[in-house]
């Protein structure tokens, strides 16, 4: 077999591989000889089939198997011999001419194919002792825990029917039909809908007009959907809602005691406090870690400058660009709404893709040199987490990871990256700094890992996201989308 380098330009490589016809024929003969005693052909006793007849019957199929084996096995062996790592799966090209292919399968012509790939550039690791980060730490006050428990307790709050008018904090049970220009619209109708006045779950102006209603009242209220409402057919439109009030109920008192904890399935109030404190610490800890990780990545980005494999960058850019366009479509916005243009956004996100690829290669090299690995148990936990996100689709997800080449890498990569960050935290200079909750959650775009592209993305402020996480889930389940505020508001990305 001949291996001839035909292109070495930057990171790009092209290799021509030639397997002589006589070598292919020899391997075919060996394969047929092994099968001679096993095949059964009418008119011949077992083991007595002439080799010429075997070639005539099975020669081409055996040669096809050999071609497939070579294509499957040789690229990695060739790269290993050359001491190279391909950034992506090498692209294999060979003749598509039927006449030429037939000659190869008949051992009348050499089997030739070409490998095209980009190498991962050599990375000379630099000392990380000069990296300095500040780890912001928040002390969780008792008041924070008690406030959170009180909010959680609202999910177990009882309501008692009242005869008077609905006031702030009361729960109104109603039927409603939403209309635009007198015509009911999809998603704008509900029966026995429950709404706590003051919860701000519905679009602005909706709840205010229910203050003062009584059971049995029928009322038409008028509201205007926000300009950025996700449903484009409703955004900015004036709508009316025909309301039939079925019940007004006053809230009962929330008492923070063991009984409240038991209603929530917890054995005692003290245990509930422990759980809530742990959740808050975990939520703040996640923000702290992300800020520390961002500082590490920013400094590594300054330390390493090298050419990145184009195919990896394009793949990463495609992932980012697909998500950005999905976000824009869901929000009903355009690039112009985000004070940019599509062309400028493409340039910014391509820069981001290059940064991600470069840092990914650096972290990979650091992890490899440090002996960082991902265990089978960690992979199983990650897979289980995926299954939990999509109840009812477990079989499809398992099949996807079983049958899709490289799918498991999407589980391994984030685990590996976090373990490399853990390794770095043991090597670099880390200074702890006590901060307030507000300081920790402050949105500092200048430190953002995706700072080149901030303007283009229709994303919420980080502080809002972190506040949502710290405050826990909404106590009441959300109703239909029509009269609510925009769906993305207050949700984590």
From TrEMBL:
Name of this protein: Trigger factor
Compartment(s) where it occurs, according to its Swiss-Prot or TrEMBL record: Cytoplasm
Classification of source organism: Bacteria, Pseudomonadati, Pseudomonadota, Alphaproteobacteria, Hyphomicrobiales
UniProt key word Isomerase: yes
Comment block on domains: Consists of 3 domains; the N-terminus binds the ribosome, the middle domain has PPIase activity, while the C-terminus has intrinsic chaperone activity on its own.
GO CC annotation terms, alphabetical: cytoplasm
A Pfam family that the UniProt record links to this protein: Trigger_C
EC number: 5.2.1.8
Domain PPIase FKBP-type: 169-251
Region feature Disordered, mapped onto this chain: 441-493
SUPFAM superfamilies linked to this entry: FKBP-like (SSF54534), Triger factor/SurA peptide-binding domain-like (SSF109998), Trigger factor ribosome-binding domain (SSF102735)
Family from the record: Belongs to the FKBP-type PPIase family. Tig subfamily.
One term of GO molecular function: peptidyl-prolyl cis-trans isomerase activity
Catalytic activities: [protein]-peptidylproline (omega=180) = [protein]-peptidylproline (omega=0)
Purpose: Involved in protein export. Acts as a chaperone by maintaining the newly synthesized protein in an open conformation. Functions as a peptidyl-prolyl cis-trans isomerase.
Organism, scientific name: Ciceribacter ferrooxidans
Composition skew (Basic residues), residue ranges: 454-463
Annotated keywords: Cell cycle, Cell division, Chaperone, Cytoplasm, Isomerase, Rotamase
NCBIfam families in alphabetical order: tig
